[in-house]
Amino acid sequence: MMVFILLACLGGVLVGLSRQLNGRLSISTTPLVASFWNHAIGFAVLTCLGLFAGGLLPAGAAEAPWYAYLGGSIGVVFVAAGSWVIARIGAVNSALLIIGGQMVTGVAFDYISAVPASFWANAAGIVLIVGGMMISRRRKASGSQ
């Protein structure tokens, strides 16, 4: 179990590093150029890993519905928007925005899908996320005056 926890932590560090590099690259160039290089390098690395480890094209990939492949297009927009946002509001605030958005969207998807969940636990989670973001913004505003 410890190996999986360490892999999750390593993944988080690498995502943070990637966002920092994309943000810095978008300042030097444009968010679209940063997104292009992010995807070009990711494609090359993942293709090499897929060829080396096997399973580059998993069984059943051709039978997947067309909308299963929309993730790539959504990813391009997400990375480009993230590169643009990091350059304007900073890495910490953009990370809070992304995490908050994921949490609220997850709760919304649970309700849409009629997944049994505790209303009060979900409401408390959303209130804590929004409250944390408001406190973060208030501290930044009072520190810059």
What does this structure look like?
The protein has five helices and no strands. With 145 residues, it is mainly α.
The chain-level mean pLDDT equals 82
Oligomer: single chain
Helix content: over 70%
Q: Could you give a short account of the major beta sheet?
A: none
Name the structural class: mainly alpha
Give the CA-based shape. Answer: globular
Please provide the count of β strands.
Answer: 0
Q: Report strand %.
A: under 5%
Radius of gyration: 19 Å
Between the first and last Cα atoms, what is the distance in angstroms?
47 Å
**Tally of separate helices:** 5
Low-confidence stretches: none
Order of helices and strands: HHHHH
Task: State the main characteristics.
mainly alpha, 5 helices, 81% helix, 145 residues
Describe the secondary structure blueprint for this structure:
Elements: H1 2-28, H2 31-53, H3 70-89, H4 91-112, H5 119-143
Helix pairs in contact: 1-2, 1-3, 2-3, 3-4, 4-5
Summarize this structure briefly.
81% of the residues lie in helices and 0% in strands. The protein has 145 residues and is mostly helical.
